[in-house]
Amino acid sequence: MEIWINPECSKCQSALSVLDAEAADYTVRRYLEDPPKEHEIRDVLAKLGLEPWDITRTGEARAADLGLNDWPRDARGRDRWIRALAENPTLIQRPIITADDGSAVVGRTEQAVRSMLG
């Protein structure tokens, strides 16, 4: 598994605690220091079964600066959203956990994190 985290985020810290308590095998990606490329975001979205606006932190100041709440949330605007996430990784919801079997989850709850443990 790989988990995208911001080490200062309490939800990320909680997710790591669950993974550690269960002795899960995972790697950490500090996505603010190692931002995902557009193709990686597309891959994660496919695994999650979500759209880019579904994993966007629209309450962030940067989202307001970009005017994200006024952007279309449809196939026409999808590439623009993905590009914004790649260029502004602070906008990506966290933590995101992906597994080698193709599953993924936004691990904001203990239940979501545990769902990745099989």
Largest sheet: 4 strands, mixed
Structural class: alpha+beta
Question: How would you state the average pLDDT, rounded?
Answer: 97
The largest sheet has its strands arranged as 2-1-3-4
Tally of individual helices: 5
State the low-pLDDT regions, or none: none
Verbal overview:
The chain is an alpha+beta fold. 37% of the residues lie in helices and 12% in strands. The chain has helices at 10-21, 38-48, 61-66, 78-87, 110-114, and strands at residues 2-5, 27-30, 96-98, 104-106. The protein has a four-stranded mixed beta sheet with strand order 2-1-3-4, covered by helices on one side. The longest helix has 12 residues, at 10-21.
What is the topological layout?
Elements: E1 2-5, H1 10-21, E2 27-30, H2 38-48, H3 61-66, H4 78-87, E3 96-98, E4 104-106, H5 110-114
Parallel strand pairs: 1-2
Antiparallel strand pairs: 1-3, 3-4
Structure characteristics:
alpha+beta, 4 strands, single chain, four-stranded mixed β-sheet, 5 helices, globular, 12% strand, 118 residues
Short note summarizing the structure:
This protein has helices spanning 10-21, 38-48, 61-66, 78-87, 110-114; strands at residues 2-5, 27-30, 96-98, 104-106.
